Amino acid sequence: MSSFTAFFLDRPKPYVTVKAFRNVLDSEFIALMLRIRIQNILRMHDEDAKKGTVKKDTVCGMTVNEVLLSLNTVFAIGNTGDWRLNAVSKNVREIFRLFGLEEPKSGKIVLA
C-alpha cells in the first residue's frame, strides 16, 4: 500500500482536508518523477555499456531500488558544521559519477 492510500485510510475523516490531500499527492508525484529519471539514466548507462562506449562498472544492471539502497549507506556524523562521512564505497562513488555529482567529502559545511 502506498503512503498516499495509507495517509487517508489511517486518519479519521474530519482530519482529511484538501490541503493535506494536495501535499501527499505532490510528494507522491515528485517521488515518481525522481524514480523515472533514475531509471532512465540507469537504462541509458546499461545500453552504453552494452555498446562498449563506456566500460562496465558496478552500476550496470542495478535497479532503482538497489541504487537508492546503496546511496542510503552514506552517513554524515558531526555537529556545529564540522561533518565527517563514514566510508564511501566504490559502488556509491560510481553512482555519484554516473549522475554527474562529485564524491561527497568531509569537512566544514556552512549553510547560508
Quick tags:
mainly alpha
Describe this structure in words.
By secondary structure, the chain is mainly alpha-helical. Helix content is 52%, strand content 9%. The protein is built from 4 helices and 3 strands, in the order H-H-H-E-E-H-E. The protein has helices at 3-9, 18-51, 64-71, 90-98; strands at 76-79, 82-85, 107-108. A 3-stranded antiparallel β-sheet has the order 1-2-3, with no helix packed on it. Helix 1 (3-9) runs antiparallel to helix 2. It is flat.
Brief write-up:
With 112 residues, this protein is mainly alpha-helical. 52% of the residues lie in helices and 9% in strands. The chain starts with a helix and ends with a strand.
